[in-house]
Every structure is written in C-alpha cells, then in structure tokens.
Amino acid sequence: MIIIETEGLSRIYGFYGINKVDIMNHFLAVLLIWIFLAGPAMAQTPARIISLAPNLTEILYDLGLGERVIAVSRYCNYPPEVKAKPKIGGMSNPSLEAIVAMKPEMVVLTDDGNPREIERRLRQLGIRTHVFRAKRLNDLPVEIRALGTALDVHSIADRR
After folding, report:
1. Domain 49-159 is classified in which CATH homologous superfamily?
2. 101: DSSP letter
3. Overall pTM > 0.85
4. What per-residue confidence (pLDDT) applies to 63?
5. What is the Cα–Cα distance from 82 to 54, expressed in whole angstroms?
C-alpha cells in the first residue's frame, strides 16, 4: 500500500503553481513508466528448458536445474538421467516442430554447434533463447554466470 502525503507537497509545490492534481498525475506517470520498464526485468523464471548441446545439458544439471530440463539433443547422454528425456534432434539439425511442441519457456544453445537459423526462428515464435558463446576455456566462467542469470540461478552460477 502506498500512502502519499499530498497536503505537505501541495504547500511546497503550491508556491511554484503546482496543485495536487499535477502532483498525482506526475506520480502516476512515473509509476506507469517504472512498471512498463520493470516488466521485462521481472519476467518469469523459465521452468521448462530445452538444451540443444551436451555441454549445456551438463552445465544445467550442475546448476541444479535438471528437473527443469524437458528435452535435449540426441547427443546428450550425461548425467545418466538425461537418457530418459525426450530428444528433439541433433545439434546441427534440431527439429523446430519438436521443440515448439514441447512448449519450452527457454531454449539454450551454442553459437558454434547449433544453427543460427534455429535461434532466429525460435525468437520469431516468441520462445526465449540463451546462446552460450564460450570459445575458450577462459570464457566458461563468464558464460556460466550469464546462463545462471538468464535462468535466475545466478547465485549458484557465481560459485561454479
């Protein structure tokens, strides 16, 4: 609940020719802008994740997100419980139809192992994606933290 003391404000701003209505209109405008801009930042944490690469699947499990993973590529085989997950095709040829049918909230993929076209198509369909861009061993900590932030487990990812 927000309580605004307008009487004191109107005395202060009244000197400048501003009345209560102007104050409230200004406050509401600022509040609406804040809500509009904060909306994307407060997007729901993805609960249904598809991994399109074995290394990403292992990282997701290491971050404690195994139960959120709903499907993987046919090359994903570790940890052992991944073998029971539905397969959506290979790394270089994932099935867009199979991915969409699973109704994921996020698809994680690599920029060097997965087709860029699949990411573009997923985004066009309104499916959130996260592209893992590690090229060298030194890139891994930064990319794992970025993935953790995208999946709202940044505190866990920071420790990895």
Report:
1. Nitrogenase molybdenum iron protein domain (3.40.50.1980)
2. H
3. no
4. 94
5. 10
